[in-house]
């Protein structure tokens, strides 16, 4: 075979059976759709770009299999058998059904569906048209990989310096995983050609050992110095100064920069961040799924238990042991230093790192910084404070600030925490801009706003608040739950005599009536209730309860809104401990 890992030859896809490596280099000749699907699902062909191209060749095979001869009248001849010629007619529905089967063979890698969708558009034109499109894709892959690898090598040297580098890679991202050159391994090849590789540490990549079987084989073939290690030793290699940068590939990259890749990638990224080591993802543009907002939407393939309970036909675990065997994990965008494609660095999270290994955002001192970075940082800082108090556990709770109109004819917006993110790990960019008037996210954003955004916008529409805080503090949530009356009406909760009432900016700080709203499954209904109540009660305090849900507070500034949340929680703790909502001293008569 030549340098390409995928060859079309006489109606068959010819490739290396990766299951036999490194001890046996055997050729596979695939002539049917079932053979293509089996090769992809059993990892005889693997790697996101490679399975995409293999899937495209599968569509070629499917189109040929569902093309049948038909006769038409030849121009200029009399009607009859002698005047007719045979033409191929494609059963488009049948070929498209086969394309669906191919695309579903492995769900996590976006390249497979991308490649199948690209060539299936030519099915109606016939098998030759599908083949021509696939061969174009094959030729593109080599050019794309070399461009991405070169850009990645350039970035590594900018970040790490012009010196022999100690690098670490995971799984296999070379010509076996693509059609030629490779992505992350392609970058290693480019760096090696520049004399910039001192050593490559290769993770063995459990459970199927793609690093040990395939990457070590490819690096040896290329003459690149390398050492093989067990996956769990990678962090220690970083801790002992043996790694300057981590280079990995990807199976899917979402719009916000989250990266799905071989299981074990996430833990590498965490270790790299802790040790202040660049973590660089190299992939073709076809691996970027801009239609998918975040990694939370990625379907992670679960593979057979036998891959974990044994190896090479030898059982290594007791019979019937339950198994968790995800083929991939998803690395959050904030752990990724950069994503590099054939177009260059398309996403950069950091140019350098601080002494604690935390990323220093790219361009943090430049005019290109996000227009709302300052507000985003303030939101993130406040969220982390409240997370540490236990008031925003996991992804619960949300914070927002009012944003003045960018244009005279545009309404006001709110910048609110994005949905599905841990409040203890928020960054300045983990926010979404939403129109206050109709609670819709402004276009061109990759994240989704919090599900509770309608609560915030209801307050901004009815009050001149500068910031809103919504948390799940325990004492206040408990009081709201016990005080609420059954039904769909708002319950007024009167509290008197507590010194803490002065913290709410009330005209009369001796007494407050706090509304307790029903907790509807549809959050928009809660927002509508709040909107109506605040319009009908212009003197209502800047605090409210939601039954079994939490509290919402607001103020002129984010600090004031946070302080009022703290004040309300402390007040509710006093009520819980005293059993009284009225702290007015009792009159005790003579005994």
Task: Please characterize this protein's 3D structure.
The structure is a single chain. This protein is an alpha/beta fold and 591 residues long. The protein is 34% helix and 21% strand. It has 15 helices and 28 strands. The chain has an 8-stranded mixed beta sheet with strand order 23-22-21-24-28-27-26-25, with helices on both faces. Helix 6 links the parallel strand 6 (165-169) and strand 7 (197-203). Helix 5 (127-160) crosses helix 6, helix 12 packs parallel to helix 14 (523-536) and helix 13 crosses helix 15 (558-578). The longest helix is centred in the first third of the chain and has 34 residues, at 127-160. The radius of gyration is 30 Å and the shape is elongated. Residues 76-86 and 351-370 have low confidence and may be disordered.
